Amino acid sequence: MEELHTHDSIHIEGDPSQALPRYRRLRRISVIATSLVALIPLFILVMINYYQDQESYHAETRYTIARILSNNKRTLEFVVAERRAALSLIITQHPYRVLGETDRLKTVLKDLNSSFGGFVDLGLIDSLGNQTVYVGPYDLRGKNYKDQAWFNEVMVRGEYVSDVFMGHRNLPHFVIAFRHESIDGDFFILRATIDMEMINRIFYALDLDPGTDAFLINQQGILQTNSMTYGSVLGKINFEAPRGLRQREVIGEYEEQGKWLTTGYTYIENTPFILMVIKQREKPFMHWFYRRTGLLWFLVVSSALIIAVVIYGAGHTIKRLRELDKRRARIFHNIEYTNKMATIGRMAAGVAHEINNPLAIINEKAGLLNDMANRIPDLPQKDKFMGLADSITKSVERCSRVTHRLLGFARRMDSRKETIDLKELLEEVVGFQKTELVHRDINVSFNIPPDLKPIECDRGQLQQVFLNIINNAFTAVDVGGRIDIAVEESGDDMVKVTFTDNGTGIPEKDLKNIFEPFYSTKGEFGTGLGLSITRDIIQKLEGRIDVQSKVGTGTSFTVSLPRRAKY
Amino acid sequence: MAKVLLVDDEKDFREILAERMMGRGLDADTAESGFKALEMIESKSYDAIILDLAMPEMDGMETLKRLLAKQPHLQVIVLTGQATVQKGVEAVKLGAADFLEKPAEIESLMAKIEEAQARKLALFEQDLDKKISDITRKKGW
Q1: Which pTM value belongs to this model?
Q2: Residue A518 pLDDT level (bands cut at 50, 70, 90)
Q3: Are A183 and A103 in contact, with CB atoms under 8 Å apart?
Q4: What is the mean pLDDT of residues A10-18?
Q5: Minimum Cα–Cα distance from A424: chain B residue
Q6: pLDDT at position B110, please?
Q7: How far apart are CA B141 and CA B139, in angstroms?
Q8: Domain residues of chain A, as ranges?
Q9: Cβ distance of B20 and A526 shorter than 8 Å
C-alpha cells in the first residue's frame, strides 16, 4: 500500500508515434494553405502585370503602325498630288500648240524637275493615241498607245496613275497621265513618267525600327517599292493584297511562320498604291519575359522565401503543437490520476474511520471480559479465558495498525494546498502535545522571525510531519529536556524549519538508516512508520529532510520546504 | 473517586467502557449525545469528560465548544475513531485537554483521566488562591 502514493509511474496513454501521421497531415495542410494564400495574390499580380504589359505592348505596336501609316500616307499623297497638280496646271495653262513644241516641253520638264523633281520624261499624246511630242531619255515619239489599257482609262476617267514598272536604266517608275479637252473640242493627253526614287526617299526617311517593314503594293499584290521582308520592287508578295475600305488604315495581327506580325495598310488616294506597314513582334510571352526579368526574379525569390518561411513556420508550429498536446495529455493524465488517488484516499479514510468504531467496541468488550475474569477468583479455565480475551485485544491492535496506515495513506493521497502561517502551525502542533510536555517537564522554545511570510502547503500533512519529528525528539530527551524550533527563510522560495533537541543523539552508523521503514517504532502519532513516512511526506511536499546528530549532545532535524509547492 | 462523563453515540461502546471504568473504581456516567452531556454537567461536577467526535445532530467539536463555554476548567479528553493530527490539533486548539484514538488501551485512558483529575485539582487550587487573595485584598486585611 505504501507504494501507491508515488507519482513516478505515470504513463501517457496512447503511443505518441501513432499520432504522427495526424501531425504530418496537419503540417502538409498548413504548408499548402499558407503557401497558397501567400503565393496566389503574388501570381495574380504577376498575371495582371503580364496582361497589362501585353495590352500596352499591343497598343504601342498598333499606335506605331498607325502613326507610320498616317504620316506616310499623307506624305505619299502629297508627293503624288503635288506632281499631279503641277501637271494639271501645266496642261490647263498651256494650249496644245505651245506644249506641242519639243523645246517648250523640254523647258517644262526642266522647270518641273527643278521645282518638284522626279520627272523622267514628258509626252503629249493626241486623241488617236499617237505620241506627238516626247521629251526624255527614250525615243518614243510617234509611238501609238491606242490599244493600251491605261490610254483607255485616261480617256474615260480623265486622269491616270500607273502601277510601277521598270523603266529607263532599269529603275522603277510610274506614270501620271492627264487628258485635256481643248476649246475646239479636241483633246490630248499629257503623260509624265516619274522616278520612284522620290517615293523611295520617303521610305528611307522613315528610319524604321528593325523588324518593321513599310512598302507599297498595288492591288494585284505586286511590290511597288522594295520590301525588307517580301523582296524587291515588282516582286509578288506571298499573301493576298488587302481589300478593304479605301480610306481606312486597317491593322490586323497574325502569326506567320512562327513570327508574330502586326500589319496595317491604307490606300494612297488617287493612286493604285496600297501602303503596307508590317511590324514583326516578339512572341507575347518572350517579350514580357525579356522586359520583366527583374519582376520574374522577384517572383522566384519571393516565392522561394515564402515557401521556405512557411515550411519552417509550419514545422515549428506543429512541433510546438505536438509538445503542447503531449503536455496537455500529461496534465490531463495527472489530474485524472490525482483525482483518482484523492477518491481512493477519501474512500480509504472513510473505511478506516468506519472500522475504528466497531474495533473500539470489540476492544472494550474483550477488555471487559478480561476485567470480569480477573475479578472472579475461581473461574474454571480462567487462564484460557483471559488468554482468549487478550488475543482478541491483540487482533484489534493489529486491525488498528492497519486502519492507521490506511489513514496515513489516505491523507497523502488527498492532499490540499492552503496558505499556512508556519509559526501558528508549529505552536498548534506543540500545543497538541502540551500534556506530554507538562508531564515530562520538557521545555520547547521557538525562534521564528516575526515577519515570516506564509507558505503554501498541505496543512494536515505538515502537521503530521512536525508532530512526528517532535514526538521523535520527545523520546530522545530526558525529563527536563529541551527542544528548540527555529524557522529561517532560505532564499526567496525556501523555508527551513530546524528541530534541535538535547537528547541522547543517534550513533553515526544508525544515522543513514533512520529514514528506512520500520527502523524506529517508538513514539509516532498515527502511522506507525515514523521517520520513513515523514521523509516520504516531505518529499511529496517537494521538500527535504536532513539530520545531524552527536551522541550525548543531541539531534537536529532540518525540514526544507518550498514557499510555493507545485504538486 | 474520579467522576467521569463518557459522551458517545455508540451504546455498546459507551456502556461497556463505563462498566470497565467503574470496575477500576471510577464514577462513570454516560451521555448518548452532546445535548445530554451539556445537561448533565449542570448537576454534577466531573473531573473528566470523555468525548467522541463523530456524533449525529451535534458533533464532538461543537459539543466541546459548548462544554467549555459553560465550564472553562472542564477537562475534556477527545476519544475518536477519526484520529488525524489535524482533528487532534483542532480539538486541542478549541481547548480539549487531551486526545486519544479509538480503539484505545484502557490503561492509557485511565492514565489520562488521572492526569486530568490532577490538572483540575491544580486549577481548582489556583482558583481558590486567587479568590482568597481577591477577598483579602478587598477587605483590606
Answers
A1: 0.54
A2: low
A3: no
A4: 47
A5: B93
A6: 93
A7: 6
A8: 2-52+293-336, 53-285, 417-562
A9: no
